[in-house]
Amino acid sequence: xxxxxxxxxxxxxxxxxxxxxxxxxxxxxxxxxxxxxxxxxxxxxxxxxxxxxxxxxxxxxxxxxxxxxxxxxxxxxxxxxxxxxxxxxxxxxxxxxxxxxxxxxxxxxxxxxxxxxxxxxxxxxxxxxxxxxxxxxxxxxxxxxxxxxxxxxxxxxxxxxxxxxxxxxxxxxxxxxxxxxxxxxxxxxxxxxxxxxxxxxxxxxxxxxxxxxxxxxxxxxxxxxxxxxxxxxxxxxxxxxxxxxxxxxxxxxxxxxxxxxxxxxxxxxxxxxxxxxxxxxxxxxxxxxxxxxxxxxxxxxxxxxxxxxxxxxxxxxxxxxxxxxxxxxxxxxxxxxxxxxxxxxxxxxxxxxxxxxxxxxxxxxxxxxx
Length: 370
Hints:
CATH architecture of the domain at 26-243: Alpha-Beta Horseshoe
Structural class: alpha/beta
Helix content: 25-40%
Strand order of the largest sheet: 1-2-3-5-7-8-9-11
CATH topology of the domain at 26-243: Leucine-rich repeat, LRR (right-handed beta-alpha superhelix)
Distance between the termini: 155 Å
Radius of gyration: 51 Å
Number of helices: 9
């Protein structure tokens, strides 16, 4: 009971202390160093500064300036209008997490590195007007999660893809030489479908081609081919999106797909693929057979002349007295008898009548007829 009473008594006092702290945290500390002919950001600035104006100097925002800026982490507004800045390097404002307004207009900026705006999570207004910017990668604006105003007026930009700025409310694009071909169709479609307001729409005109110079970039008519290209770009964006999925998610989805495919029948595409493969294999086999057939044929014919087996040799010897052991011994026969025997043997040979001898006629039958 005592504890509750004490808390009730001290509650208003604690609320007063918190309100005082919040008021002190919102105190603005302004530092104006305009037209001081500074070439570097001065070091002796109050560390509690919240609004810093360094316009109309000769600051280049080099590495030394970047290191000095890291000290002023309480900055909410930074003005660098009309200086000698040509390049915005990576992490130039990485420690300015409380910055809400950044104005770098009227410089000679022609290069903005990819990570130039890293760390500006609370930035609401970005002014890059009247520089020499030729092109911008929309991915460089990804760290600007709370950006509401983007000022690109008076540069040399002819093409600008859709930026991924989900909280953007106002965009300024006039004073650029816009090329209103199909490449700008995505930007026009984004300006029409989103809630972003294009400031000075009536003077944000096309510069090329000449037939479209009287149109605003938001109202210029496009041919049907641009719509088809726009559809193809959407599919490419989806492909890039799926490529950015982590390996674990991809593996799990792949496992689920294989499990489901085990219970589902194959589609007609698989049947067609199998048919094509089988047809290719059969065609290759037929070609190989046609090439190798003569070799196999000759190989088979070579086996028609085989050696006689043992029982076939005996029958051959019985039918044809060609054995040397069965021949009579004629060693005592003189030369005259030999001549007579030779003439008798050759008397059965038929005379040559000009016809080819038929090897299939039995010689024993011919002898009997003679």
